[in-house]
Amino acid sequence: MIQQLVKQGYVAQAYLELKPMVERVHRVGGFYEWWSLDNQPRGSSGYRGSAGVLGRAIELLQEWAEQNRENR
Description:
Elements: H1 2-7, H2 11-28, E1 34-35, E2 41-42, H3 49-67
Antiparallel strand pairs: 1-2
Helix pairs in contact: 2-3
């Protein structure tokens, strides 16, 4: 979803949606397969699917920032 927000030009919304996900990964120190309703990590702590998706979303935001550097 975040990647598509960036691709469709909704960069501010994409950033707002991505930020809590990145903060959660930082807070718990890793990636997990899924999260409980009370925001606790569950499943495999070695799950890397979410790492790739978050990483790509970050890359897209960085690419957008680089391309729009002069428009600030």
